[in-house]
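INFO worker-7 received task bundle
INFO bundle size: 2
INFO processing item 0
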Amino acid sequence: MRLNKFISHNTNYSRREADELVKQGKVSVNNKVVSEFVSVSDDDKIKINGKLVKLKKDFTMIVYHKQKGELVTKKDDRGRKTIYDNLPRGFSKFVSIGRLDYASEGLLLLTDAPAIATALMNSDIEREYYLKIKGEINEEVKTAMREGFFAADATKGAHAKTAIKSMEFAPFVSFEIFGSSGGYTKLRVMINEGKNRELRRFFGYFDLEVMDLKRVSFGRVDLGMLKEGKWRYFEKSEYDDLRDFLKVNNVRY
């Protein structure tokens, strides 16, 4: 694999930080300092500042209950609060499995193994959400939820500066409408992909605004009684399920 990927998989450095270390001449491969991006294997001896990088044999997963008004990013140039401001320092290098936007809340998974984060983000594992929509859901919207559709313009509900204009929406795994009152509709939906602001874009296409969005589960991991702004480690059964997933999908971490 690429050297920067090897370093990010086996240390707390990101790929970008690994690139900088290489540029600064702080990385050696088999006792030779490298200044360019080479491919390496598990048999190669990689050192950073003379210290051997040990192959990572295990990983850590946590569940965090994201609050509204937090960004899922390491740093914000506008000084807004991020999830890392609320998490213990020891998790500053953890990466999130997907994101929840500023106005959304609920279950967020984080890990110290980037390869696992990528595999889970790109998987078809089911994600469950509770939504409050401004407006009523008619038969056209229900059909779209059942069958999916392509939107040439999927910018309504997206971030103002989005570069993603169109989007293919897969059929929802399931949905349940709890009812409408006062001009709002509450529902539960389950999808098996996590595209950029997918649900806000989906309903926005039909001129329905998502007022509240809360993710309550990712696969068999659920929010349970975890309070807003709190976190917990994976339980043994959750680790077992994840290891089965990694084995079946041949994910190296």
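INFO item 0 finished
INFO processing item 1
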Amino acid sequence: MSSPEQVLDVLRAELRATGITYKGLAERIGVSESSVKRMFGQKDMALSRLAQICQATGIAMEDVLRRAADARPQADALTLPQETSLVANPRLLLMAICCLGHWSLEGVIETYRLTEAECITLLAELDRLGLIELKPLNRYSLRVSNAFRWLPDGPVQRFFREHVVADYFAGGFNRPGDALMCLPARLSGASAQELGQKIEQLAGELARLHRNDRRLPPDERDGYTLLLGFRSWEFSAFTALRRG
């Protein structure tokens, strides 16, 4: 749910966009300008008053509420208990990853051996955990931001290392767009930090492309995974050859 402050912020922005001042709004709803200022200054507003203002100004109340909901603060990560719950149930983790990929319920059912009832149960659990907000007709919106990351060395990352990494690198990396590189380098701390920032930028670019391509039909998109690792490291077999 969006907060009253967010609803008022959106309503204020809508009024500015339509060129309606506090004075003009006061004339439309039959109160003084000071009363209007007080309404917005109190950071809260009765639903009946919101409906009155929207009707008097031609602003759709549904749009105000939707935009306020979309603007609510979103988490960049889950908590340790939330991630622990996900890895305890592989089907729940699968549904979580599908939701992060903005899959529809129908798409999940068509692709995986999950019934509609199972999917709805999993969506309800993800809503309880705070990853999504479940809406009518089994639609949902994410409660996490575009900068979402799994916890460093958290339950999901450990699950991926144990069960996913070997399967991922077992592929041929020979399809158009695939890439596999292992590039050693000796860097200063400052250079390593600079490269880390560029990796963050790359992750942001991936998120941007992902959002843009959501407009395309499902049959024009394919599943891609960017798996990045960058740390100070030496292969243990090479370390064993070091001079004492």
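INFO item 1 finished
INFO post-check item 1: The CA atoms of residues 10 and 63 lie 9 Å apart.
INFO post-check item 1: Residues 189-213 form the longest helix (25 residues).
INFO worker-7 idle
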